[in-house]
Every structure is written in structure tokens, then in C-alpha cells.
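Hi support team,

I've been running sequence recovery on a batch of backbones for a student project. Most finish fine, but this one hangs at about 90% for roughly twenty minutes before it completes. I'm not sure whether the input is malformed or the queue is just slow. I've pasted the C-alpha cells below so you can try to reproduce it. Let me know if you need the job ID as well.

Thanks,
M.K.
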């Protein structure tokens, strides 16, 4: 496998899973006393963001609205994920890095959509969502033998840390085996 293919695989699979997790969470985030917890946005003392509103923006980001990235993602944003190339996600930094990762994921699954399995959990400055993702494979995933047009479904959990009205850390736990099996990449 070439270095380019490894880099694409490293970025593509975790992004797909991350996209799934958060997108699903935000689409169905309930309004509750926990979800109503407010966070003051850095640089905008009068602006207050609830985790629900932040998760809604996160969903729009994963669905391709990259204009949301700088408003909800801290410049210090870090990804923690087990990448297919053995990396830990530390190379994905800030709003631009996350947007690039999402764009690569969406290139292989342009109609990727998320749904929540359960309501999001919000506690203090952390939010966690359990999701299911479904999309149509468009081709281009390194090592995949599945035909373009193959519908894939996989699951995962996103956990996000909020600070000063932005997401600063993201832990992704997705079922990579489920995805790779459907793509016939194993």
C-alpha cells in the first residue's frame, strides 16, 4: 500500500466513524436540564451556547457545512481515535484539520447520514452520543473490494469535551471492523 493510500485510509475511516457518531447525536439531541447547561463562548462574553446547540452545529459540520467549524471547534481541538494506520488521531488538529478529515470521509460516502441509538448524555463540560451511520459507498477507499453503490451501516460513540463554548477534545470509538467488513477491505 502506498503512503498516499495509507494516509487516505488513516483519515477516511476514523472520520467516517466520527461523523457518524456526532451527527447522529446532534440530530436527536433532546432538550433537558442537562442539555440546557450553558457554556460561555470565548471571545463573546454575551454569547451563550448550550451543549444541545453545539451538538446541532456539530451535526451540520459532519453533514458538510464546514462554515460551522470555526464557531464550534477550538484552535486547540484534539482527536483521540485508533486510526487504521496505527495512529492515534493526534495529527488532526483544529477546525481546519477536522474539516479536512470530514471532507475525505464524505468523499467516500457522500450521502452519509447519522441517527441516534439513544439520547445524548451531557454532564458538565462533556457530551457523549451513541450513533448509527448509513451511507452509500462511492469508491476510493484503499483496499476495499466492495462495488460503488454498496450501502454500509456502522455504529460508534463520540465523546466531546467543551471549554469556552467550543469543542476542545474528541474521543471516537467506532466499529471499524463492521465498516471494513462491509467494504470487503479485510
Amino acid at each position: 500500500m502506498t503512503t498516499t493510500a495509507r494516509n487516505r485510509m488513516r483519515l477516511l475511516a476514523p472520520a467516517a466513524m466520527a461523523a457518524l457518531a456526532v451527527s447522529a447525536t446532534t440530530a436527536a439531541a433532546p432538550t433537558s436540564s442537562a442539555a440546557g447547561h450553558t457554556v460561555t463562548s470565548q471571545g463573546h462574553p454575551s454569547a451563550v451556547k448550550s451543549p444541545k446547540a453545539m451538538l446541532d452545529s456539530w451535526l451540520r459540520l459532519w453533514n458538510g457545512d464546514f462554515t460551522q467549524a470555526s464557531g464550534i471547534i477550538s484552535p486547540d481541538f484534539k482527536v483521540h481515535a485508533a486510526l487504521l494506520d496505527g495512529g492515534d488521531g493526534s495529527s488532526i488538529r483544529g477546525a481546519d484539520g477536522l474539516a479536512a478529515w470530514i471532507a475525505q470521509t464524505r468523499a467516500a460516502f457522500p450521502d452519509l447520514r447519522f441517527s441516534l441509538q439513544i439520547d445524548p448524555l451531557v454532564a458538565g463540560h462533556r457530551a457523549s452520543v451513541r450513533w448509527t451511520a448509513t451511507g452509500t459507498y462511492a469508491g476510493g477507499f484503499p483496499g476495499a473490494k466492495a462495488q460503488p453503490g454498496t450501502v454500509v451501516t456502522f455504529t460508534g460513540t463520540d465523546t466531546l469535551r467543551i471549554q469556552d463554548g467550543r469543542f476542545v477534545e474528541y474521543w471516537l470509538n467506532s466499529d471499524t471492523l463492521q465498516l471494513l467488513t462491509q467494504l470487503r477491505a479485510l
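--
Follow-up from support: It reproduced on our side and the slowdown came from queue contention, not your input. The longest helix spans residues 3-27. No action needed from you.
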